[in-house]
Amino acid sequence: MFSHVMIGTNDLTRSKAFYDEIMLVLGYNKGVIDPKGRCMYATASGVLGLTKPIDGEAASIGNGMTVGFISCSPEIINEWHRIGLAHGGTAIEDPPGVRGKAPRQLYLAYLRDPDGNKICATHFIPNE
Prior knowledge:
- It is globular, with a radius of gyration of 15 Å.
- The chain is α+β, with helices and mostly antiparallel strands.
- The mean pLDDT is about 95.
- The strands form two sheets. Strands 5, 6, 7, 8 and 9 form a five-stranded mixed β-sheet that branches.
- A hairpin with a 2-residue loop joins strand 7 and strand 8.
- It has a single domain, classed as 2,3-Dihydroxybiphenyl 1,2-Dioxygenase, domain 1 (Roll).
- Helix 1 packs antiparallel against helix 2.
């Protein structure tokens, strides 16, 4: 559905260090700085970009916004959450765990990145 998601940052170096670590846990490569000074995580299914706002103003969090990443297991989500905390993320909401009721259950973990953006790792639990 989406071609890309751009996340604003006030400190590209700090954000790249954080996202490099959590994206590696999910099986993606470290970000690459493009000619415009943005950090890009390109995959076959889309691109995550980190950028200073093009209007020159400070980056701020999107109230009500969450960027969610798909994971293939709860164990990977737990590691994603641990690595995120170790690299400047902040735990928010409930601890990693199952949310929802059968037949639609998810295993989720939420963090705020170093700029305060809300991110989530999600594993869709198969129906039995």
